[in-house]
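TASK: fixed-backbone design
INPUT:
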C-alpha cells in the first residue's frame, strides 16, 4: 500500500497525462524520445526536482558523500547524479549511495500504520537501477570513475557494515524509509559521520501519514533545541536540518 494525499482530480489528471504519454511514445522517433520528458512532468514532481536542486546547492561547498535511505525506484539518485555532473563535474569524491530492501518494508511497528511488504517493487530492480545510474554517470565528465553504489537489504544489517569501512564524511543524508525503527537506528549510526554544514533531510517529517518517521526524528533531534527544522516552501513535504 502506498500512502498518498492525492485528490481524485489529481489521480484523473495523472491518468489523462499517462494516456497522452502512451500516444507520444508510440509515435515519436527514438532519437527524440527522452528530449521532451518535461512535457509530461506533473507540477508536484517538478517541485520535487527543484527541491532536490535546492538541497544539492546547499552542499556544494561541503565535502562528503550523499546517502539516501529508502531510495526505492531511485529517482532522487538520478537527480543527484545529474546535479553533480552540472555543478561539480570533476568531483569524483561525491559518491552517491542508495539503500533499500527493493522488496518493500521488511518489518513495521505499530506506530507506522503500514504492513510488511508495502512499497515492494519488481524483481531485480536494483540491477536495473545500477545500470540506469551508470548511464547517468557516464553522461557526465570523468564518467570512467564509478561514483554510485546501490546497497540492497535491510538497513539494520547493511548500514552498520557499510559504515564499518567508511572513511568519509556524509554531506547529505536523505531519509525516506517512512518507518520509526530503521529511521532512528540509521540516524544514530550516521550521526558521527556528519560534519558542520551537513544536511539531514526528512521526506515525511511532521506528516500524520508517516508518524513513525516523525517520532524517530523527534526522539533523536527533538531534545536539542539548537537544531532548526527547515522547510522548502514549494515542496513542504520535505524538512531538513543543517548540522551546526
Ligand atoms: C517511500 S519509499 C521510498 C521512496 C523514494 N525515496 C522515492 O523518492 O521515490 C520507502 C522505502 O523505504 C524502504 N525501507 C523501509 N524500511 C527499510 C529497511 N529497514 N531497510 C531498507 N529499506 C527500507 C522500502 O523498501 C521502500 O522502498
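OUTPUT:
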Amino acid at each position: 500500500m502506498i500512502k498518498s494525499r492525492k485528490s481524485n482530480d489529481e489521480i484523473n489528471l495523472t491518468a489523462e497525462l499517462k494516456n497522452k504519454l502512451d500516444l507520444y511514445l508510440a509515435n515519436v522517433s527514438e532519437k527524440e524520445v527522452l528530449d521532451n520528458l518535461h512535457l509530461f512532468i506533473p507540477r508536484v514532481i517538478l517541485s520535487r526536482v527543484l527541491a532536490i536542486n535546492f538541497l544539492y546547492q546547499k552542499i556544494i561547498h561541503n565535502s562528503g558523500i550523499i546517502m539516501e535511505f529508502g531510495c526505492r525506484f531511485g529517482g532522487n539518485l538520478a537527480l543527484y547524479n545529474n546535479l553533480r555532473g552540472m555543478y561539480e563535474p570533476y568531483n569524483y569524491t561525491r559518491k552517491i549511495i542508495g539503500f533499500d530492501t527493493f522488496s518493500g518494508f521488511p518489518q513495521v511497528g505499530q506506530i507506522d500504520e503500514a504492513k510488511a511488504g508495502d512499497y515492494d517493487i519488481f524483481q531485480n530492480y536494483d540491477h536495473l537501477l545500477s545500470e540506469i545510474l551508470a548511464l547517468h554517470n557516464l553522461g557526465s565528465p570523468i564518467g570512467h570513475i564509478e561514483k554510485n553504489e546501490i546497497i540492497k537489504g535491510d538497513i539494520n544489517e547493511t548500514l552498520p557494515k557499510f559504515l564499518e569501512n567508511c572513511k568519509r564524511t556524509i554531506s547529505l543524508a536523505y531519509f525516506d524509509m517512512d518507518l520509526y525503527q530503521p529511521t532512528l537506528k540509521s540516524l544514530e549510526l550516521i550521526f558521527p559521520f556528519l560534519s558542520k554544514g551537513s544536511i539531514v533531510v526528512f521526506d515525511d517529517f511532521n506528516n500524520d501519514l508517516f508518524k513513525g518517521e516523525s517520532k524517530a526524528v523527534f526522539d533523536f533531534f527533538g531534545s536539542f533545541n539548537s537544531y532548526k527544522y527547515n522547510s522548502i516552501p514549494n515542496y513542504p513535504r520535505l524538512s531538513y536540518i543543517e548540522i551546526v
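COMMENT: The two ends are 37 Å apart (CA to CA).
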